[in-house]
Amino acid sequence: MPILLFLIDTSASMNQRTYLGTTYLDIAKGAVEIFMKLRARDPASRGDRYMLVTFDDPPYGVKAGWKENHATFMSELKNLQASGLTTLGHALRAAFDLLNLNRLVSGIDNYGQGRNPFFLEPSVIITITDGNKLTHSSGVAEELHLPLNSPLPGSELTKEPFRWDQRLFALVLRMPGVAVPDSEQLGSVPTDESAITQMCEVTGGRSYCVRTQRMLNQCLESLVQKVLSGVVIHFEKSGPDPPVIGEGHPQPWHSCHKLIYVRPNPKTGVPVGHWPIPESFWPDQNSPSLPPRSAHPVVRFSCIDCEPMVIDKLPFDKYELEPSPLTQYILERKSPHMCWQVFVNCSGKHSDGAHPFGYLKASTTLTCVNLFVMPFNYPVLLPLLDDLFKVHKLKPNLKWRQAFEMYLKSMPPYFLLPLKKALRMMGAPNLISDNMDCGLSYSVISYLKKLSQQAKIESDRLIVSVGKKPPQETGIKVKNHSSALSLAHRRDFKQLLQGITGEVPLRLIDMNFKEFAGFQIALLNKDLKPQAYRNAYDIPRRNLVDQVTRMRFNLLRTTQKLIRGQDDDSLHSIPVGQMGNYQEYLKMMPSPLREIDPDQPKRLHTFGNPFKQDKKGMMIDEADEFVTGPQNKKRSNTGDLNSGTALKRRRSMSPLLRRPQTPPIITNHVLGKGPTGTQGQQGIIKPIPLHKGKYQISHLQLHLVKYIKVCVLMFLKHCYIITI
């Protein structure tokens, strides 16, 4: 799982604009997004882990670490602001400490037990800076220095702050403010001459001098191809040069600082290996501590041609070397059947003992050079194992056992476990006893366990601190340059106090702010940065007139209101990148008011009448009894059948949809037979009486009365609820 850590320069010099119209910080943000898009084309990018570190003071410089997701990474990237110093050394140290946080817990470094290339955590640090002078709180530095003291436990076990699977690359932005014609360079992008270049080369990386946007895109494509799984090894020539073949050979191949590729297993996706690279010291059981190791092992190679040795079923590790002057020289010799042995100084039992643990050999097709890692002092072990299987048939005699015991004593103790596993695979599991000793003293083992526990605690502490914002200054501090008495001891203190509160005109001539001890000008807007008031040289030249105008405006308005840190125009001046940030605006909004009666359930708004309720469970009032009760009990049987059918027909219709009818006719009979009753009322629908008496009411009027009464009762009920 590759780790991609972006170290972004957030110094104030990153605010300078290029010929494209954007600032260096904007270009850095865009470069990160372009890199992620290019990297996403590779199917292996699914396991990538992205981290973000800036030049802010620790612990606020780590914006996205081990636990932050992709959304947090992108949010922190977009919200970066350039307002600090160019503290490159402290930022690099913080980045390396962040990467080394879990190495002691996981035991990936394997201190004192050999270096396993297949135990790795490949990391690529991409620094984007403008390459200006290194500044800190005490001045300007000419050279790049990383702090030696680190809060990370176990940092004293390695001389350098980085590890052999961590490489540093730098994109140094050198884009001019005005477009220069014909500034493009054909071919590869040159390295930069800033202080970070040497640091990149030490870790196995390089720097890029970026002058145009096209060069930046070219560099990003190159960086995507350098995200590889491997470790950096320092190869050095030992002994005389080989005989010259053909013409002269280049000298840089004598010492190369290059990467060896550690390919993951295609089935599991995890690198698999068998043999470690020896340590540069012999582990002593009486030693109370471990000597510090260098980040990159120094592997020496002898230029004496030897035949490669290998036997059946004996496992070996094969690593491809990164193209370098060394690989170019070996390939030019065109000797694919010969090899050069490799060894590590002081790895044997004696101080001058150095036995080979592998060899360098060109591939058969002469396309690459491979490093073969074998058991320690394999020229002695392989003939013994060959005799064991072919001559003795797994039944060794005393002479063979004595030779094998002598070999085991000359081998570092940490090779016993991988050798026992290899012999088990070959079919000889009982050659080495089970009571093996790792070669470390009890004090060293206890110290490593203690460091692992401390590293776990430090890891939890650092993970919690990631994402914290630095405390914002709520005011502008004014230094006290006078030791005189404060204004409270003056005789006209009351008059000055009344002038400040606005009761009387303020005498600005008598006002001396230096007499206040710890005087601080308050700022209404917390987002306003007060650095501009501290030092006049921090104000950009184009903002000098505007800054003086604001200060004069604030000074002259002290008798009316509190001092304001910005004018009305700046309230509506928002950068384009923050226009869509609605979440921060919503956080500043006041909380909504509470309900008048929170216990009362909310009434659902219905269409039409706002007082309308569900009719389920409605009680029957007196109007219903007046309609249903007396009519059903006292209904006369003398009514006509036609009147009953008309009653049913009229009740099926809504009272609001009927046609207006004539006023009720008060008479003593229902169907009168006089000439006036038959002639004058022929075309009119006659009302149906409900009671035979003095008054007769039509059904339309009765339903209207009922509807009005129900509405009045509902209105009164609603008013009663509101008053409660």
Blueprint of the fold:
Elements: E1 3-8, H1 24-39, E2 49-54, E3 62-64, H2 70-78, H3 88-99, H4 103-106, E4 123-129, E5 134-136, E6 139-141, E7 166-173, H5 196-203, E8 207-210, H6 213-225, E9 230-238, E10 255-261, E11 298-302, E12 317-321, H7 325-333, E13 339-343, E14 358-362, E15 369-373, H8 378-390, H9 398-410, H10 416-426, H11 442-465, E16 475-477, H12 493-501, E17 520-522, H13 531-534, H14 544-556, H15 568-571, H16 582-588, H17 622-633, H18 641-651, H19 675-679, H20 699-723
Parallel strand pairs: 1-2, 1-4, 4-7, 7-8, 9-11
Antiparallel strand pairs: 2-3, 5-6, 9-10, 10-12, 11-13, 12-15, 13-14, 14-15, 16-17
Helix pairs in contact: 1-6, 8-9
Protein name: Integrator complex subunit 6 like
Region (Disordered): 657-680
Domain VWFA: 3-227
Question: What would you say this structure looks like, in words?
Answer:
By secondary structure, this protein is of the alpha/beta class. The protein has 4 domains: 225 residues, Rossmann fold, CATH 3.40.50.410; 208 residues, no CATH class; 114 residues, no CATH class; 102 residues, no CATH class. Helices cover 31% and strands 12% of the residues. Strands 9-10-12-15-14-13-11 form a 7-stranded mixed β-barrel. Helix 1 packs parallel to helix 6 and helix 8 runs antiparallel to helix 9. About 12% of the residues have low confidence.
